[in-house]
Amino acid sequence: MFEAMNKKRTDMDCLIRFLTDYSRLLVITGAGCSTASGIPDYRDNNGDWKRTQPMEFDTFMGSKAARQRYWARSFAGWMHFTQATPNLAHHKLAQLEHQGRIERLVTQNVDGLHQKAGSTKVTDLHGRLDQVRCMSCETRYDRHAFQDQLALLNPAWTADVTTVAPDGDVDLNIQDFSGFQVPDCPRCAGILKPDVVFFGESVPRSRVDTVNQALHHIDAILIVGSSLMVFSGFRFVRDGAGMGLPIAAINMGRTRADSLLTCKVEAPCGPALQTVMDIQAA
After folding, report:
1. Which of 45, 74, 106, 169 is the least crowded, having the fewest Cβ atoms under 10 Å away?
2. pLDDT band at 157 (very low <50, low <70, confident <90, very high)
3. CATH of the domain at 98
4. Domain tally for the chain?
5. What is the pTM for the complete model shown?
6. In which domain, by residue range, is 154 found?
């Protein structure tokens, strides 16, 4: 037990030195950053799925039944998702940005909580759940307004939520979604999809380019609450390591980048960031 406590102290000391020595950071956040806000993460401490893998892009686009199932579940989960508020981790990262220490914050989350906490240099790598996109004409619609449309089209729809996912999807106590009505795009009658990157869908090139440009203006990378098991986030860490950038992580459990890390703290994101920043301010 003494060895475990000593290791935690050593890891935290390493993170304190890391954030003292490096002041132009690329921060990459994942689901673990939002768990204290009531939004669960996808993976366990070993990086394995906790629940069924999220909707695949080709499945959504190719199947009306899949779209009905997705939107029925999202309709039920939207209220749970929108009740989430920024937690300590979001506020501490916003504070670091206001201190001029974050060059770019790249989040794999789709909850918009970094912006609500006051961060402005944010790249929503996988998009935002509060927008709906037409896959034909590219028009964007507000998700709150779309929720109202779904309610009007499905006035008698009721279902009990059993579990909630990080992308606003939920598990319901029913299996038949054939009666759930989903509107088409009012402009061109195209398929409407949440403006988030589904599995099997590419991250928009402009977002990747923004992060790649930031890699040339930083002196270190900090990972907060991400296992980096999805390549879209891991690639920036891999490329940063290839450029000789030091890399630190705050994450509960294994990450895909463990072999590349300068130091790692296995602790809840918010309290770990607060501890480091309080010590630096003392």
Report:
1. 45
2. confident
3. 3.40.50.1220
4. 1
5. 0.89
6. 2-281
Question: Residue 223 pLDDT more than 60?
Answer: yes
Contacts 24+ apart (CB under 8 A), 154-163: 154/72, 154/75, 154/180, 154/181, 157/72, 157/75, 159/72, 159/76, 161/76, 161/77, 161/80, 163/40, 163/51
Instruction: For the chain, give the secondary structure using H, E and C.
Output: CHHHHHHHHHHHHHHHHHHHHCCCEEEEECHHHCHHHCCCCCECCCCCECCCCCCEHHHHHHCHHHHHHHHHHHHHHHHHHHCCCCCHHHHHHHHHHHCCCEEEEEECCCCCHHHHHCCCCEEECCEEEEEEEECCCCCEEEHHHHHHHHHHHCCCCCCCEEEECCCCCEEECCCCCCCCCCCCCCCCCCCEEEEECCECCCCCHHHHHHHHHHHHHCCEEEEECCCCCCHHHHHHHHHHHHCCCCEEEECCCCCCCHHHCCEEECCCHHHHHHHHHHHHHC
Of 147-161, 189-203, 261-275, which range is least confident?
Answer: 147-161
Residues that are catalytic: 126
Burial state string for 176-187 with b = 16 or more CB within 10 A and e = fewer than 16: ebeebebeebee
Are 125 and 203 spatial neighbours (Cβ–Cβ below 8 Å)?
yes
pLDDT-wise least confident of 27-41, 128-142, 146-160, 214-228: 146-160
